[in-house]
Amino acid sequence: MQSKDINSLVFINPSVNMYKISRAAADFGSNVEYMFTGELPGIRADELFYLDENRYLRTNLPGVKQKSRDKNVYSFKSGLFKRNVIKRHISNICDKSLFPNVNYVDLQMMAEHTVKEHLPDLKAPVLNDFGEVTKNINPSKLYITGWLPYFTYKNKLEKLYLSAFKTDFDAKKCFGRDYVVFFSDYYRVEIFAKDDILYTVGKLHKHILDKLKIKLPFLKKFEFEEIYRSEISRNCYPWAMNVTSDNLLIINDYSYFGLSAHMPEDWYHKAGRYLCTGIQL
């Protein structure tokens, strides 16, 4: 991945998995930097829950672990053949799993649940928004992120809507530090609370609360005011993708923002080496 003109790797809004990749890259001799942007508050969770129309689970999904831990997770370079292999792989797992609309990140999260560790305190600049990053791209640095606070049609990134709702109940007390993923035949949505604000992430942006109120009837008792909405992009394929320029890369860090799946140790090693050299082991 890295050319002779690149002398630093900059990890933007790093998750636990991105941080581990950065340490592997540092072991290969790369200079590593970090920065944060202000679109989303820091997310930490004590529990991860999966819900569908009938079930409420917080344990590893039976049968997924053996199916999802395959060699395709190491495919850092894309290609039509690999893309088709991954699509067939996901389709096969979805048919055998308990949840509809599952994606490749979900599969890895379900297979290994989540890491219990948190991101260490990093001395890093905090920018107002991601636009400050794109306006000041340094050609001698490679910028790496796990998600974008805007949508780009380049490549085939997953388009999602991030919404924040002010409520008339204590959202933080209600949801605590839990991160919940809802699945149905028609939609998939992530939900969490931070500083008494309720956040949702999903492909639906209209009537998302109506859908949640069906699953969580107690929400019907309360009022919600949408105070923020934006389109975001995620990379749900194993390989890295260039975004707008060769110096901005979006990777699949197998995370819901700061909440990361526990990946095999050699995955971090291979990802770090790829970012430094473009060579897959």
Structure described in brief:
It is built from eight helices and 16 strands. By secondary structure, the chain is of the alpha/beta class.
Q: Mind explaining what this structure looks like?
A:
The chain has an eight-stranded mixed beta sheet with strand order 4-3-9-10-11-8-12-7. Strands 5-2-1-6-14-13 form a six-stranded mixed beta sheet. The model is unreliable at 59-68 (pLDDT under 50). The chain has 281 residues and is of the alpha/beta class. It has one domain (8-152, 177-185, 235-277). Helix 1 (16-27) links the parallel strand 1 (8-12) and strand 2 (31-37). 26% of the residues lie in helices and 29% in strands. Helix 1 (16-27) packs across helix 8 (265-277).
Overall structural class, as computed from helix and strand content, comes to: alpha/beta
Uncertain runs are: 59-68
DSSP strand tally:
16
Please write the string of helix (H) and strand (E) elements.
Answer: EHEEEHHHEHEEEHEEEHEEEEEH
Largest sheet: 8 strands, mixed
State the end-to-end CA separation: 13 Å
Into which percent range does the helicity of residues fall? 25-40%
Treating each run of at least 4 consecutive H or I residues as one helix, how many helices?
8
What is the mean pLDDT?
Answer: 80
The main sheet orders its strands as: 4-3-9-10-11-8-12-7
Q: Choose one word for the global shape.
A: globular
In terms of DSSP E residues, the strand content is 25-35%
How many separate domains? 1
